[in-house]
Design a protein that fits this description.
elongated, single chain, mainly alpha
Length: about 130
């Protein structure tokens, strides 16, 4: 779905410079990573319940938090999903086929896991450099 890099370390570096404190940056990244599975699970629950409003809220949350955390590929995927679902009539929502929904969620889970892995590597590098 997306060809963006999983992690934009330059964006994280800029965020670190703006924050002016590597401890604050590391804390932010750890909180984002800790909440990543919850955000993906919220999307799964919204799909299972066919709750369009909750899906849109959850995908927006994933998109914006991922952008802030330098998780470029995940943010772009969430943006693509937000755009796709926003174009569907809200009443009644025409959901993609179940097979397609399963593919979407599997892609989100894999990308979230890889994002978390790369964030842990980034954190190790930051901690080692200080």
């Amino acid at each position: 779905m997306t060809t963006a890099p999983v992690l934009d370390t330059d964006a994280l570096g800029r965020l670190g410079e703006q924050l002016g404190d590597t401890d604050v940056l590391c804390g932010f990244i750890r909180r984002y990573e800790a909440m990543l599975d919850q955000r993906v699970m919220r999307l799964q629950r919204a799909l299972t319940a066919r709750d369009h409003e909750d899906w849109m809220d959850a995908v927006l949350s994933l998109k914006t938090s991922s952008a802030m955390a330098g998780a470029e590929a995940l943010s772009r995927l969430a943006a693509d999903l937000q755009e796709d679902f926003a174009s569907r009539p809200p009443t009644p929502v025409r959901w993609p086929a179940m097979e397609r929904l399963s593919e979407i969620m599997e892609c989100l889970r894999r990308l979230a896991a890889e994002t978390a892995r790369q964030l842990r590597v980034f954190l190790q590098q930051v901690v080692s450099a200080t």
